[in-house]
Amino acid sequence: MKARARIIAEGRVQSAGYRDEVENLALEFGIKGSVRNMAEKDRVEIVCEADERIIDKFLKNVKIKNEIIDVKKLTVKKTKPTGEFKTFKIIREDKDSEIAERMDEAVKHLKGVKKGMYEVRDEVKGSR
User: Which domain holds residue 128?
Assistant: First the structure.
């Protein structure tokens, strides 16, 4: 049976590539809808429509935890589908600020990579 779900993902979900991961999963599952950042920096809203069993599988997969993304909580409200979606898309508010935000995050991650490389270098030097 077709269903609609409004999902609020809370945790480290903004500026982490979470919306891209959600979009990829939605495409993989054949789900229609959208994902967007909310005003609260620790929340993302997903609205989706598909068969209820597919949505349930999707929910298990969007609770992502890795070194960058950490979904602490999912709040789900299911309702009747409206059929308003033709595809699944990421809703981006302001293109310029989104780009700047991603650049800031990229710099943070590159600093971590650089630090890790220096640590490995120091270990190698110490073992000679």
Answer: 94-128
